[in-house]
Specification:
This protein has 659 residues and is of the alpha/beta class. It has helices at 9-17, 21-24, 38-45, 47-56, 69-79, 123-126, 141-157, 219-228, 239-251, 273-277, 283-292, 313-318, 344-356, 366-374, 435-446, 459-472, 479-489, 509-516, 528-538, 540-546, 591-598, 608-618, 623-657; strands at 62-63, 84-88, 91-94, 97-100, 103-107, 110-121, 162-171, 185-189, 195-199, 213-217, 363-364, 380-389, 403-413, 419-426, 453-455, 507-508, 517-518. The strands form 5 sheets. Strands 1-2-5-6-7-10 form a 6-stranded mixed beta sheet. Strands 14-13-12-15-16 form a 5-stranded mixed beta sheet, with helices on both faces. A two-stranded antiparallel ribbon has the order 3-4. The longest helix has 35 residues, at 623-657.
Length: 659
């Protein structure tokens, strides 16, 4: 017997992103680029622990645990016969619509629908989820849509019910009342790989005395959604009409005609050629073929979706200019600047021009790069941080999502070309707040000389600014020295009350990439995960040096590798991505999931290390598993700073060649 095709809240959310996705979702033929492993997904987002904490605020609540549609509906209806009741995950059905409400509070004919989200909220900034124009704030829109959908289903399923709706969110303004609260919510999974949360028996009334989750009424925002949202880009006009039409189309497995645009860049229904060879279909390709009448060969040509940080791709697509080869300078509002550094528009046009001229050569502004290098002091230091921000804080007085800096790696490049992995730090102790020891160790490693320090993106600067503020409020005996050190290697954040620029302020290698360097092989991305493979393929110097198994010897000391050769060629003569030579962080995870967790944005904040750290903190594991996971973290972070060194070495060789 086939399962009913209900429009659920997750499917409705998918449809509001793109209604055509409803046709692709849940079908094995179409590759879905989301995490296969639900346990890893729950580790990465932390929402399950917040959901379990929310339940603790309602100690008399009843859990609907059945996953079967009919059984869960029957259990819910039986409980709703009570005059007053609190139900967790009640199953509500109306026609082809089905929702499981996070928390439903019934008092007579009055119902409180509460959707729990692990999203930070500040009463000063977020208020009623509206912007200054009285419209839905874009960052809250998906959450309001979620609540609005559920409220509609509930009101239809129980005619005459008086329904008020709420978001229960993480209150950024509320400090944690106790130490170790986060350790009382452990993630578990059963033999069928179903995720869950185990709540410690030691959870007490004092732990819940100050609520770090806040229940905020959404009735006004929901009404605005009903009246003003989902007017365009959907099957019909209007929020509620779209619910009804989408439910019918999904039930009948009808495909909504695609409307292509910039949203397609993040489509999860994409396939590589290898995936297609293995029998998968690409929903992305099907949509574009329908709208543009493309052949498979057309997809080999770069499109406007690949232009770095380009916000006019919708306009270009609407004008019929989809491929880079069809663009003119006017299409991107290109203007030449008088500064030596590439502006965003100049970089975008350089990317387009390289494609149009079939030019695969690397662009380097030799003179500007040489001038930058002349200002640096050897030895050069390269650092990379791994960080996270958890919803339920580690310590009393900490705010939700207050940052945790749990790991760094540190490489040194000497003036004579010697490279060494000079140091590292990893705090994996369960429940430990590592930030102050993190800075102490960083200070110890960097204060031995006055060499220039490099980071990749603003991430390291922002986190050190945050730890600076934490230190100022602390009782640490050495906080003045640590604060002075932080100020010496950073610049103050824009929102800081203090204002400083350190005499060893870190150089941002990411900014150097954007200003002075472009390799067509990066496809427009400035992420270090894209730049490293590109520069390894273009630099003969790096290939000759690192194809020898010398990394992790006395010649190139390493703390985690021995006799490692980083250069390995594939069947097409291309250098393989070094990250793919590292041991798998999660032995049971698929290559697909590891690939997704390893992806990083322009600021190099991937989810692999964060997920591994969450697993160390919030799951039970053997000593062997713990050591293997720690080993993987150390290797990945070491490669991050080695990648920075390799980029620097290649640049130095390019500059020397052009003397």
């Amino acid at each position: 017997m086939s399962q009913p095709r209900y429009l659920t809240k997750s499917r409705f959310k998918l449809a509001t992103e793109c209604p055509t996705k409803l046709f692709y979702t849940g079908k094995k033929a179409y590759l879905d680029n989301k995490l296969d492993d639900p346990f890893l997904a729950s580790l990465a987002d932390g929402g399950f622990q917040v959901g379990e904490l929310a339940k603790c605020y309602y100690p008399d609540g009843h859990d609907i645990t059945s996953l079967d549609y009919e059984e869960s509906i029957q259990q819910t209806n039986e409980l709703l016969k009570q005059e007053n009741v609190v139900i967790f995950e009640p199953a509500i059905r109306f026609g082809n619509l089905f929702v499981r409400v996070d928390i439903l509070v019934k008092q007579g004919n009055e119902y409180q629908l509460i959707e729990v989200k692990a999203k930070s909220y500040s009463a000063k900034k977020d208020k009623d989820f509206l912007n200054k124009s009285g419209k839905l704030d874009s960052k809250w829109k998906p959450y309001i849509f979620d609540v609005a959908f559920q409220k509609y289903v509930l009101k239809q399923a129980i005619p005459g019910a008086l329904v008020s709706s709420y978001l229960m969110v993480v209150d950024k303004d509320m400090p944690c009342p106790v130490d170790g609260l986060n350790q009382k919510f452990k993630l578990t999974r059963d033999d069928r790989n179903r995720r869950g949360v185990s709540v410690s028996h030691s959870l007490s009334a004092s732990d819940l005395s100050v609520k770090i989750l806040k229940k905020v009424n959404t009735d006004k925002a929901v009404q605005i959604a009903y009246e003003t949202e989902l007017q365009t880009g959907m099957p019909v006009e209007g929020f509620i009409p779209n619910i009804e039409v989408l439910a019918e189309q999904y039930s009948n497995d009808e495909k909504v005609m695609p409307v292509i645009g910039s949203k397609c860049k993040s489509c999860e229904f994409k396939c590589s050629e290898e995936d297609e060879a293995n029998g998968f279909k690409s929903g992305f390709k099907e949509c574009w073929k329908e709208q543009l009448h493309w052949s498979d060969e057309d997809f080999n040509e770069p499109t406007v979706l690949s232009i770095s940080n380009f916000r006019s791709s919708n306009r270009c697509i609407e004008n019929g200019k989809v491929k880079l080869k069809d663009l003119s300078p006017e299409d991107i509002n290109y203007e030449e600047s008088s500064t030596p550094a590439l502006t965003l528009k100049e970089r975008q046009w350089l990317q387009i021009e390289k494609v149009q001229e079939n030019d695969s050569s690397v662009y380097v502004d030799v003179d500007s790069m040489r001038n930058e290098m002349a200002s640096w002091t050897y030895p050069l230091h390269f650092i990379d941080f791994e960080t996270c921000a958890v919803a339920i804080p580690f310590y009393k007085g900490m705010s939700p999502y207050e940052g945790i800096a749990f790991q760094f790696s540190h490489h040194i490049l000497h003036e004579d070309g010697r490279v060494e992995h000079a140091g590292e730090f990893l705090s994996s102790q369960v429940g430990e707040f590592p930030n102050f020891n993190f800075v102490r160790e960083l200070k110890a490693q960097l204060e031995k000389d006055n060499g220039t320090i490099f980071r990749y993106s603003n991430h390291e600067n922002a986190y050190l600014n945050m730890v600076y503020q934490q230190l100022k409020l602390s009782a640490e005996l050495d906080k003045d020295k640590l604060c002075d050190f932080i100020k010496s290697i950073t610049k103050s954040s824009n929102n800081s009350k203090d204002n400083w620029l350190g005499d060893r302020n870190m150089v941002d290698q990411w900014e150097l990439v954007k200003k002075y360097y472009y390799d067509p092989a990066t496809g427009g991305s400035n992420s270090i995960k894209a730049v490293l493979p590109a520069i390894l393929n273009s630099s003969k110097f790096l290939q000759e040096k690192y194809e020898q198994p010398i990394y992790g010897t006395h010649e190139l000391p390493s703390l985690n590798f021995k006799n490692k050769a980083w250069i390995e060629f594939d069947d097409n003569g291309k250098v393989k991505d070094p990250y793919k030579s590292l041991p798998k962080m999660f032995a049971e995870a698929s290559e697909h999931d590891i690939e997704l967790l390893s992806e990083s944005d322009e600021l190099n904040n991937g989810g692999l290390a964060l997920t591994a750290y969450a697993r160390l903190q919030f799951t039970e594991m053997s000593d062997y598993e713990r050591k293997e996971l720690e080993r993987g973290l150390l290797m990945y972070c070491e490669l991050d700073t080695l990648a920075m060194v390799m980029i620097q070495e290649a640049w130095r060789e390019m500059i020397n060649e052009n003397k």
